[in-house]
Amino acid sequence: MEQDVHDFRLPRGIKHWAAEERPREKFISHGRESLSDAELLAILLGHGYRSVSAVDLARQLLARYNQDLSKVASCSLQELKQIKGIGAAKALSILAALEIGRRRNSMVHKQLFFKTAKSIVQAYHHLFADLPHEEFRILLLTRSNRLIAEKRISIGGPNHTTADPQKILKEMILHQASSVVLMHNHPSGNLEPSEADRTITRRLAYLAKALGAEVLDHIIFTNESFYSFADRGERSLEAS
After folding, report:
1. pLDDT confidence tier of residue 158, bands split at 50, 70 and 90
2. Closest Cα partner for 165 from 86, 98, 218, 90?
3. Going from the N-terminus, what domains does the chain have, and what CATH number goes with each?
4. Tens digit of each residue's pLDDT (9 = 90 or more) over 32-50
5. Are 137 and 152 in contact, with CB atoms under 8 Å apart?
């Protein structure tokens, strides 16, 4: 008796796929570059759930965040655990792997020399992309503008964060930095510096000068653009 075509079901599990289509086997036989983001995530996930394969689950995860791994990396553990099929172990594996990637990028950036605000934005825009809150970070540089370290100073709310000048000066002394670049984001998308932004820039420029150092720039990030105090001629603001 012939099988009803409507009763026919293709197996969904990865173990039923052709060997060359399975992420692990594909990685081994064709190299890591041959895998899509979803396939790489599927290896971290290990397995899906019910009739949903690990690759399908990875695709669902990426679709949720507009195919942007940086957005996935900025998720909290609790946020990832809310996705069906992703428990604590899978969420931890994903976040740990993406954090390793972020740290590797930071090490690569330490080999860079920053000459313009645009070069800094290109290197660090991903740290601020799509954040729902403000964060204040600094870049500590040598006299020749080579990166020594990048540090997060504070995390605030959607419209404000507090940067402690003493904490920034401590980091400058600890790392023997000759200059510092201030960075923070405006989740609202408004590029215009607030009076508080200008005040902290003036105060830090004054305090850094007392150490024989300088504030090279203060850059405000939005998802679409950036504002550079140096480019606008405000780098050398004197303390009032």
Report:
1. confident
2. 218
3. 10-106 (1.10.150), 113-228 (3.40.140.10)
4. 878 888 898 999 998 888 8
5. yes
